[in-house]
Amino acid sequence: MKSKEILLLSVLLLILSSLSCTSGDDVESSELVQPSNWWEKLPRPVYATLEKVENSQWWFEVYRLPHNIYAIYEPYQFEEAICYLVEGEDRAVIIDTGTGIGDLKKLIDELTDLPYSVLNTHTHYDHVGDNHQFTEIAMLRDADGINRLIEGRTNESLMNYLRPALLRKGLPEEFDPDSWTIPSVEPTYLFDDGTLIDLGGRTLEVIHTPGHCTDEVCFLDKENKILFTGDMFFPGPLYAFGDDVNIDEYFQSVKKLEARIKEFDFLCSGHNDPWVKSEVIHRVREGFEDVFAGKGEFEEEQGVRRYYFNGFDILIRTDMIK
Ligand SMILES: [Zn+2]
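Above are the sequence and the zinc ion SMILES. Below is the predicted complex in structure-token form.
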């Protein structure tokens, strides 16, 4: 073939490939899911009300919450992932391990002298990024979740999350984007709905809240009336559009938490804001009801709708709405 024909053919192939149907990744990159102005909301007002704790890495911001809890926040990547160090009298747990861009183990060793283990709220990349640094990893007894943790993530599958528009201040010098992966990890302990985790003077109860994905759990700090919610709830766009989502289960899980709302006053969520009054759970239940009833304000793009509510949004695939 002459070079002109080759050029024409490649242009044609390019056009054809851009016409292929919308994949999950395309949806994730849509402006409704990953808005290019995400950082305009920062710093979020809550952080001025919390005590900041200095640490050796600029990538993390650490805040001391009541009852010996540290919120570990990643404000420079659009996920704004938050994980938590929770100290009991005898031992500590790390609830989620962030994206893996920062060196979480180094940070934890600066914050506590207690022995510790990791509790995963679920196994999406932005919660298990640094699991591989730790020796004790607990998660829900759930086949899909366990497989996802063991499979890990390739560099190629993660690169979308480092697009310049999704970063606010570059990346840490020690971090090499070209070799970033989520290494395969085997959980060392499996818990179930209702399992009690004793830290000494402080008990966390596992509450299985599937919907965002099958292995999503919350941890109820019973003595201190705090609920760690992972991605079940955070004050931002609740992801109810991915392949892992079961929207009916999500709604049932919201109702399950609402039925127990007297047992917790505050939510420590997996993104954006680490200290939210629990009453928002009532509005989340109402929000899902509005979506199912065809009510509520929304914007739609690439087969995804973003519904806007007071204190959170719901991102849902249009074909999931009954
Ligand atoms: Zn998440």
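The two ends are 52 Å apart (CA to CA).
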